[in-house]
Amino acid sequence: MKAFPMFIRTSGRRVVIVGGGEQAAQKARLVCKTDAEIILVSAALEDELQGLVASGRATQIKTLSPEVFEDAAFAFVGTGCPGFDAAAHAIAKVAKCPVNVVDQPDLCDLTTPAIVDRDPIVVAIGSEGTAPVLTRDIKTKLEAILPQNLGGLAALAGNLRPRVAEKVARHRRRAFWAWVFKGEAAATWARGAEREAARMIKDAVAEGGALDRAKSGHIALVGAGPGARDLLTLRAVERLQEADVIFYDRLVDSEVLELARRDAERIFVGKVVGAHAWPQDKISNMVVAEALKGRRVVRLKSGDPAIFGRATEEIAAAQAVGVPIEMVPGVTAASAAAASLGRSLTERGVADTFVIATGTGCADNPTPHCTRLSGPGTTTAFYMSVGQATRVSADLIKQGLPSESEVDVCVDVSKDCERHFATTVSDLPQALTAHAVKSCAIILVKWPAHVDVGQPVKSLPNAIWAEA
Length: 468
Prior knowledge:
The chain is of the alpha/beta class. The protein folds into four domains: 99 residues, NAD(P)-binding Rossmann-like Domain (Rossmann fold); 57 residues, no CATH class; 114 residues, Cobalt-precorrin-4 Transmethylase, domain 1 (3-Layer(aba) Sandwich); 114 residues, 2-Layer Sandwich (Methyltransferase, Cobalt-precorrin-4 Transmethylase, Domain 2), CATH 3.30.950. It contains 15 helices and 17 strands. The strands form five sheets. A five-stranded parallel beta sheet has the order 3-2-1-4-5, with helices on both faces. A five-stranded parallel beta sheet has the order 10-9-11-8-12, sandwiched between helices. Strands 13-14-17 form a three-stranded mixed beta sheet, with no helix packed on it. Helix 1 links the parallel strand 1 and strand 2. The longest helix is centred in the middle third of the chain and has 18 residues. It is flat. The relative contact order is 0.07.
């Protein structure tokens, strides 16, 4: 290493920032995360820095001198003028103050890392100034892994340390803290049940660190999104990292599963027509059974679990036996398809209503009237409709959408194998066959409000996608 990583205490100390423009403001935003006294050295300050002074968070000194740097924890120099910055660096060195000069590595005693802030837990990533883009990428990955409320758990543990030292025998403390930060308590805290987790921890302390109480399981219905792993939410990644067992379907991309704990058990419960069908009640019973063992269970579903994801049945099964269950939203395929084509699902003056429908229903209603809400001024997303394309196309035309209206079909949205092509409403069934579209595709129709039903709209924006 050419630079030693360490944390500098800021309580009761000053940090000097030389400059009054955007460079200085950027450094001030960093220092504002600490409890340091901020000294701004500049004759004039931009609006953001003026606001810090007005609020009392910072103090302005208009003249630069060696005395400014005396006893400071460290200093930043960023005036935008290389010559003045070099002079300020020399003055800081006379005062023996560690200094960072913006964009001049040779004049830096210290560098600012990429920071993942879960106060009081702080992760700093540095590259000795060689690869700032890489450090930001690492920061992004850590942001996705570490729960947003992790700092609160660390703070609680800090407050309880004296009590733990009093109540928990020394030989039991390591196991106790492992349970707090990596076991059931940590998982409960991470899912947002801070009060429940705090009570669990305090009860365990009162019992001398006893961890043999019955564990309570938990189920998370997690939306895996349309395919691309970087479209998962931070909360979805957190639940995958916490899971003891994961039930996933055939549309979940393998790269998404790579975000899960390495030692998590993975159970495939996909449904492929004519090959391998899992009845919904069997899936629900298996998920609940694992949770009743005290395990953290993730039911990983493609897209969003609340949209044609059979979430109602699984929620009911969990509630029937008193197992806690939560739903983690995911990016649904219609949104991903629109993003892929660079189009909006709604458009002022064209489509002010967005409808989600499915062409394939349940056993009691296998062919639902999925076009009944389609009409001028609407965008309708048809899910699971490739096999029903002939009926959907005919119904749309019957309701007044001109047969020559332009159609876009998107397949495997957000995946490496994504593709799309153009056709018309009347030719939709034949186009799907010609392009061998059988599944993993989504149907969306934008029907302009300002066109009369039955009038040609060939030159106006219409889009249809299809999802099987």
